[in-house]
Specification:
About 10% of the residues lie in helices and about 30% in strands. By secondary structure, the protein is mainly β.
Amino acid sequence: MGRVIRAQRKGAGGIFKSHTHKREGAAKLRPLDFAERKGYIRGLVKSIIHDSGRGAPLAKVVFRNPYKYGQVEETFIATEGMFSGQFVYCGKKASLTVGNVLPLSSMPEGTVICNIESSIGDRGSLARTSGNYATVIGQNPDDGKTRIKLPSGAKKVLSNKCRASVGIIAGGGRMDKPLMKAGRAFHKYRV
């Protein structure tokens, strides 16, 4: 008989329920729309916030709604160097600067990226933990594929229409300082 691992026990109820009350919500890229596929759209970083249970900080980014009057707020995972008041550009025609979101086809080999989509439009699923990044190691425009090197060292081939943020995830070096005593570990996991 296999053992039920902790990640599975968290759903079961009792003492192993994960404590999600203070969390800020799912951190995702913008839903893929016409503006991102054909051009770009500008967003403004309103604030950088801490998220309980997550090592990396989050960024609240406000975009103009392209289809009707109003604004849309998205929660991105902050990249290192991001600050409140910064403009972030998302889309095919966006420039290759830290914090921007581009399709992999627009990124040259050697680009350091994070929060990468593994399938088109899934809004980011790879290289999302603090201090992590992946690297573009090859482009194959004929097949529409891009090869990336993941934080684990594994290499993966993705569609070049998948999007990614430029830069590395903020909050790196979190594991460098030792906890030193059981009490700190106790309070880290206590909610």
